[in-house]
Amino acid sequence: MNISRMKYALLTLVALILSVIHVSAQIKWNSAYQAYIDQYKDLAIEQMLKYNIPASITLSQGLLESGAGRSWLTKSSNNHFGIKCHGWTGRRVFHDDDERGECFRAYDNPRQSFEDHSRFLATQSRYARLFNYARTDYKSWARGLKQCGYATNPQYASKLIQIIELYNLNQYDKAKKFDQFMVKHSTEDGVAPDGNFHVIKAYNKNYYVIARKGDSFQSLSKELCIGKRKLAKYNERSYKEELAAGDVIYLKKKRKKATKEYKNRPHIVQNGESMYLISQKYGIRLSSLYKKNHLSPDYQIKVGDKLRVY
Known about the structure:
CATH class of the largest domain: Mainly Alpha
Number of strands: 7
Strand content: 5-15%
Radius of gyration: 24 Å
CATH topology of the largest domain: Lysozyme
Shape: elongated
Oligomer: single chain
Largest sheet: 3 strands, antiparallel
Helix content: 40-55%
C-alpha cells in the first residue's frame, strides 16, 4: 500500500470514529426519554400486535422524531413521527423542516399518531420489504427504514439502534399483551397548561402522577380527563385542597393492602411522616391502614412505630 492510500485509509478511519463518537454523544440516557417510554410503551406494543411492526422501532422513532414528546410539532399537533401531509386530508400544521413552512399531519391525540404511523408503514409499497424481517430483528428494521427513505439523516439507523440498545427497548418486541388503561389514556385529548404532560406511572395495580409546583386537582383533571372531584376522592382529599410539588396523586381508587413484597415487612415510621403520607406511599386506603393496625383515626403516630401495610 503506498503512502497516499495509507493516508486515505487513516483519514477514513478517523472520520468513522468521529462519526460514531458524535452519534454516541447525542444519544445518552435521558430521564425525559425514559418518561416517554413509560408513557407510550403500551401503545407501541398495541401497534406491534396489530401491524407486526417492532415496538422498539415505533418507540425509538417516536423518541427521535418528537424529541421525547417535547418538540413543537408534537406539542402543537400530537405528531410523534414527523409524518408530512402527502395524501393527507385531515387537519394539518406548517413547520420548517428540510424546507420552510412544510405541511405536517395533525392529530387529536397520541394514539391517532401512533396508529397513522403504523398504517403509513404498512400501506406504503416502498416499506413493504421491511415486513419480511422478524419483529425481533430491530437492526434490520432500522437500517431498512433509512434505505427506504424514511429520513434523510445519514445516521438515522445508527441513532435508532443506539436508542433501542441504551433503553433496552427490544424487550417489548417479545410482548404478548399491553396495559389497556395506558392505551385508553392516550386517546384522551387532555390539556396540559404548558404542554408538558405528567408521566403516568403504575404501582400496586393502580396509576399515579407526581404533582408539580402550581398543580391543582382542577389542572390535573383537565390534563388527565378525570373529574376533579373523582380524582380528589381517589386520593382521600377535597378537590379544593392545594397540591404540593411531589404529592402522589392516584388515578383510580386505592387498594386495601400494599404489594405482596410487604407481606412480612412492616413500615417503620420516619420523622415527618403521617398516616396519610404512608397510605399514599404504598397506594392503600387510609381507612385500611388504620384498620390493619387497630388504630383509631385520632391516633398520633410516633417515629419508630411499626405499621402493617399488607
